Amino acid sequence: MIDLKGYEIWFVTGSQHLYGPKTLEQVAEHSREIAAALGASKHMPVKMVFKPVLTTPDAIRELCLEANSSRNCIGLIAWMHTFSPAKMWIAGLTLLKKPFAHLHTQYNREIPWGEIDMDFMNLNQAAHGDREFGFIGSRLRIERKVVVGHWQDDSTQAELGVWARAASAWTDWQGAKIARFGDNMRDVAVTEGDKVEAQIQLGYSVYGYGVGDLVKYVNQASDADVDKLVKTYIDEYEVVGDLKPGGAKHASLRDGARIEIGLRNFLTAGSFKAFTTTFEDLHGLNQLPGLAVQRLMRDGYGFGAEGDWKTSALVRAMKVMNHGMSGGVSFMEDYTYHMHAQGDKVLGAHMLEICETISTGKPKLEIHPLGIGGKADPVRLVFDAQTGPAIGASIIHMGGRFRMVANVVDVVPTDAPLPKLPVARALWIPRPNLKVAGAAWIYAGGAHHTSFSYSVTAEHLQDFADMAGIEFLVIDENTRVQEFREKLRWNDLYYHLNKGL
Ligand code: MN
Q1: 350: pLDDT confidence band, cut at 50, 70 and 90?
Q2: Disulfide-capable partner of 30 in 9, 107, 153, 436 (CB 3.0 to 4.6 Å)?
Q3: Cα 450 to ligand 1 centre (Å)
Q4: CA dihedral defined by 353, 359, 361, 367, rounded to 10 degrees?
Q5: What is the mean pLDDT of residues 131-145?
C-alpha cells in the first residue's frame, strides 16, 4: 500500500538572459546531465524530472504554480549554475507550497588550472550564484534543505535521497486519513492533542469511529476468507500447537483472523493510511487486536495504541520514508529498564502491537492471557527485534505547536532468553546512555510511545520536521543535558516569536 513510483522531484536551474543563448544552452545541457545523474542514483527513491532553465520572474512564478498544482511533484531541487538575480525568485518562492532543497554544487568538479579563463568562470559560478539564491531563501524565511558538494559525490546524492524520502512522507501525509477506533484512553495526556491544528499544520485528519463500526466489518468476514487467512498464518509463522487446526485454542486464531479481515476491509473501504485502537474500548470484539495490527503495520499502515493518533501518523510517515530500505519500522513503547553497573538498557515492547518488519527471524504466533482489558486471550506474534543502530521518534503537542523528539539507540541482543515474555521486544542502549537520554527525553516531554526504525535516521526526521515547520530535537552521542535544556528554552521562545517573523 506504499508506492513511491508516481512521485517526482523537479530539478530546477536558475540563470538570466545576460549570458546569451550559447551559455544558456550549455547551462541547460549541464543541468540535464545533473538531473539524470541524480535520478539514476541508488539513493534517489523517486523520479527526477528536468525542467527548462529559468531566466525570468514570470517563468519562475509559473514553474512554482505548476509545482503546487502537480499531483506527482513532491518537491523541487534548485541550483544556480550561473547567477540568477534573486529578486526574480521572490514571487515564485512566496507562492511555492512544495518542499524544496537547494543543491549547492558546481558542474565542473575541479579548476582547470592551465585553461581557466573568464568564460569558464562565468559559466561555473554557483559559488556566488547560489549565495544570491540562498540570501532570498533566508530573507523570505523559507525552510529548505541546503546540500553542498559535487553532484557526482555519493554523500551529496545520499543527502538529497534522504530529503526525497522525507518529501515523499510529507506528500503522503497531505490529505491522509487516520481511523481512530474509540477515543483517547481515558486519562492519558500525551496521546491527546489538537487534531484541528494537526490538520492545519501537518495535513492529515483523524476520523473517530465507535468500535461497533469496526465490529460490523469483523462480523462480515466470511468463513472461507477466515480459512484462507489461517492457512496464510500457518505458512508464514511458527504457529503454536494450541492454535493450529484441531488445537484447543484454534477458535481464538480464527477470531484473530476475523478481526484482521474486518479491520483491513474497514481501512481499505475508507482509504485510511493509519489507525488507532484502545483496549478500553473493545465492545463487541472478542479480543484486543494484536496479530491483526502487527500484520497491517507490516503492510504499511501506521498504528498507535490507546488512541495515539500522533504516533500512528508518525509510524506511517516513517514507513513511507523507509520504503524500499532494509530495516523495518514499528510502533514501540519504552517498557521496562535493565539498570546495571555495566550500563543501563531499555526493553521496548507493547502489550501486543510490534511490527514484524523489525523481527530478526520467523515470528512465533502464540496466545497468552492479557492481564488488562478483561477480554479473551489475544493472539499475537512474538519475536526478538534485529540488532543494530535504530531511532525512536515521538511527536507531542505542546499546546499551540508540535514538537518532535528522537533518540538514536543501539539495539543489542538480550542478555539471556526471555521464555516467559509473551510479546515481541527490542532491547537497546540509548545514546549516549540512559542517564542522559532519559533525562533529555523527559525534559522535552517526549511520549512513552514512539515510532521505531532501523533505516530512517535523524537526518530524515530533521528534513521532515523542517517541511512540517515543527521543532525537532535529537538525543544522540553528542547530547549534554544542560545544553539540551537550554535548547528547549530557546526553542520555546523561537517558536513563540516566529509566528510574527
Ligand atoms: Mn501504550
Answers
A1: very high
A2: 107
A3: 9
A4: -10
A5: 96
